[in-house]
Amino acid sequence: MSTRDRNARAEQRTMTAALVWAVAYAGFGLACVLSRTSLSHLGGDGEGLEWAVMAVGVLVALTAGAVVRYGMRPALRVLLLSACALTGVMAFSLLMDVITLMLGQGVDSPASTANKALAAVGAVLLAATARSDRLPAVPAVPTGTAVPKPSAAPRSVQLTAWAGTLAFLPYTAMKTYWASGGTFAGVTGEEMLAVSERNGASGIFLTLESWGLDPTALLAVLGVFLLWGLVRPWGQVFPRWTPFLRGRRVPRSLPLAPALLGAATLAPYGVVGIGYLALVTAGAVTMGRGDFPSEGDALLVGWIGITAFAVYGIALVVAARSYWLRTRSTA
């Protein structure tokens, strides 16, 4: 089979997947409209998001159909990329819902979480579809030569990983100090535990806190582990201390899926958050003190948390791109 035929088949598969997703997403939106199910993360009365979901699904279905009939025209590519951006926005904060479920808590709105998950899948599919006609003309990969040997990321990427790691140190120290009963920013560990309980924290969350282990700090450690797995050779092959997977190569999508999910949530959240905190620091806007004694205490904690999310999120973007490039199939 020629390279052109292989690329044509790959383009057709991508387009079919996007079309199936579009029909399913439009159907999901229609079901929410008919059942009057709100897609707001807080539930309650609908705010029009259900109609937007249905509209995006219909738009993508019509666009995909037009691409099949007329080919990938510039205007159709713009529509696909616009829909990709919309679904990316709709998928925002999916990571927060995943973390909530991991900690044994229920999400505020199951329908909203389902929408974010579907939107995240759609964003990936639409991005791939928009560039499906630009697949590189490379020869077929012979059987048994799946991917290159494990390799480390360039030095610049590893320095970015160090920045993402160091950015989390103040955050994990702060959360661990609270969990161990210490007082920081005018709030004691006991008061912080009471706040978590009042906000509906799960039994797992509260138990770990009572043991002096903050769950979010533990997740930060896992996030750093993921980050270094993307830039070091051992991230492409499970370490020797994993008996049930010893010697097996890591599926390419296994680290990339959480990396892309984390990057898509934390990077924009952190960058926007830093802009907001900068305005607060400059006195341009005010910020509520929340559960802290003063606005200054709340601002201090905000800077520690948001800086960690922003730097780590950007580092995750850089590391994921490097991992993608280093694990591409070669002939």
UniProtKB/TrEMBL annotation:
<feature type="transmembrane region" description="Helical">
    <location>
        <begin position="216"/>
        <end position="235"/>
    </location>
</feature>
<keyword id="KW-1133">Transmembrane helix</keyword>
<feature type="transmembrane region" description="Helical">
    <location>
        <begin position="78"/>
        <end position="103"/>
    </location>
</feature>
<feature type="transmembrane region" description="Helical">
    <location>
        <begin position="20"/>
        <end position="39"/>
    </location>
</feature>
<feature type="transmembrane region" description="Helical">
    <location>
        <begin position="51"/>
        <end position="71"/>
    </location>
</feature>
<keyword id="KW-0812">Transmembrane</keyword>
<keyword id="KW-0472">Membrane</keyword>
<feature type="transmembrane region" description="Helical">
    <location>
        <begin position="256"/>
        <end position="279"/>
    </location>
</feature>
<feature type="transmembrane region" description="Helical">
    <location>
        <begin position="299"/>
        <end position="320"/>
    </location>
</feature>
<protein>
    <recommendedName>
        <fullName>Integral membrane protein</fullName>
    </recommendedName>
</protein>
